[in-house]
Design goal:
Blueprint: H1 16-44, H2 49-86
Length: 89
């Protein structure tokens, strides 16, 4: 069935509800990133070099912060998977 992995073990990640929620989240993030890119390009076209440098440094800091958050996010996803599995998914 759709909620079993190739070995036949039930996997909460394969349930349609989980997959749909994950896809929605990814779509939202993708749309948000694209929107921010477009806004950034619009702003960049009107900035001078000093402002551009400052914005770039801020973006670098945000990227570092997001990179540091990634393990915590991945750990939370794994925890959610285990909780779903423990409750019969």
């Amino acid at each position: 069935t759709e909620d079993r992995d190739p070995a036949g073990i039930e996997d909460p990640n394969h349930t349609p509800g989980y997959q749909q929620a994950l896809k929605s989240t990814i779509d939202e993030l993708g749309g948000s990133i694209l929107n921010n890119q477009n806004r950034l390009l619009d702003v960049l076209s009107r900035l001078n070099v000093t402002e551009l440098r400052e914005l770039y440094q801020q973006a670098e800091i945000k990227l570092i912060e997001l990179t540091q958050l990634r393990p915590a996010i991945e750990a939370r996803i794994e925890q959610n998977k285990q909780e779903i599995a423990a409750h019969g998914g």
